[in-house]
Amino acid sequence: MATMDAIDRRLLAELQDEGRVTNVELAQRVGLTAPPCLRRVRALEDAGVIKGYHAELDASKLGFAITVFALVSLKSQAEESLRQFEDHMRTLPEVRECHMLNGEIDFILKIVSRDLQSFQEFLTSKLTPAPNVASVKTSLTIRTAKQLPGVPLEG
């Protein structure tokens, strides 16, 4: 998208905070009428700035009691090896995020699991034997002080 003005940024901030807001309510919040508001939102969607809409779920209420971060080092950093690892991570529903890093560690993963035993089974049967994995270091989340989706949008 070539140019975004203050209204576009306000639209994005409102939608990022509350994706289910109606177009009429959204238009009121940003000082537009409904038709131009809808046109702007659709333009932001078409430009790929808005990639989708999601419900925020409470993992613990759905039986996923633990969140683990795993630092993964690979045996090879050749592009094909990186792609194979990433492709494998996409097939594992427990892996909620997979980020390639620069430096000593190749990837950081965010993994959810029902309990420690389930995580141990996942670690030994799916993650450690994954393509090209040299080592895995894990840290169990004790509590989360902040978890915000998206990016900071200043008006």
Automatic annotation (TrEMBL):
<protein>
    <submittedName>
        <fullName>Lrp/AsnC family transcriptional regulator</fullName>
    </submittedName>
</protein>
<dbReference type="InterPro" id="IPR011991">
    <property type="entry name" value="ArsR-like_HTH"/>
</dbReference>
<dbReference type="InterPro" id="IPR019888">
    <property type="entry name" value="Tscrpt_reg_AsnC-like"/>
</dbReference>
<dbReference type="InterPro" id="IPR000485">
    <property type="entry name" value="AsnC-type_HTH_dom"/>
</dbReference>
<dbReference type="InterPro" id="IPR036390">
    <property type="entry name" value="WH_DNA-bd_sf"/>
</dbReference>
<dbReference type="InterPro" id="IPR011008">
    <property type="entry name" value="Dimeric_a/b-barrel"/>
</dbReference>
<keyword id="KW-0805">Transcription regulation</keyword>
<dbReference type="Pfam" id="PF01037">
    <property type="entry name" value="AsnC_trans_reg"/>
</dbReference>
<dbReference type="Pfam" id="PF13412">
    <property type="entry name" value="HTH_24"/>
</dbReference>
<dbReference type="InterPro" id="IPR019885">
    <property type="entry name" value="Tscrpt_reg_HTH_AsnC-type_CS"/>
</dbReference>
<dbReference type="InterPro" id="IPR019887">
    <property type="entry name" value="Tscrpt_reg_AsnC/Lrp_C"/>
</dbReference>
<feature type="domain" description="HTH asnC-type">
    <location>
        <begin position="4"/>
        <end position="65"/>
    </location>
</feature>
<keyword id="KW-0804">Transcription</keyword>
<dbReference type="InterPro" id="IPR036388">
    <property type="entry name" value="WH-like_DNA-bd_sf"/>
</dbReference>
<keyword id="KW-0238">DNA-binding</keyword>
